[in-house]
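name: query_chain
kind: protein
chains: 1
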Amino acid sequence: MTPIKSIVKTDDCKTLFYPPTTLCLAAKKLRETKDYPTFLTSYSVDNENYCAANVDRALTTNSPMLEVAAEAYGDQQVITWLYAHLASLALSTSAKKGEELLVNQLTSLARTILYNYPKLRTTAFMLFCARFKAGHFGTFYGSFDPLTVTSALKDFTAWAQQQRWIAMEKQSRNG
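structure:
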């Protein structure tokens, strides 16, 4: 039997011990403070209106980013969470009744949001859904359109960044 030391050079082993990334540490902290069922309850569709009533707080709070939640609970769990919010959004629109949304369509949209907006905070996404339902971002013409949602999300993130800076400036002035 060949000793392991003769196969692997000591210098090669250094690459195995990279320090944990900020993302890994944030995910670990999230897992320690909230298990997935608690995450679902805290950031449920039912709490979207709370975010709408507290815009500054929704945009400045330290809620987990989508990428942190995905690292903590797995991509599929976050896609399921996004799916619930998107399904609620679809059901609240004026899209034609009788046209059924395909599960794959909402799942694909949830996946697109997760991978294109990984830095989006959960409360910001909930605020987006609440404001979209209130008519602030986007309109559906006839049927639910994922492109309308992603275009509205793009507009929302620009608006949210501006609002976040204003809210943080206001907080710093008030001490």
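note: Residues 20-174 form one domain.
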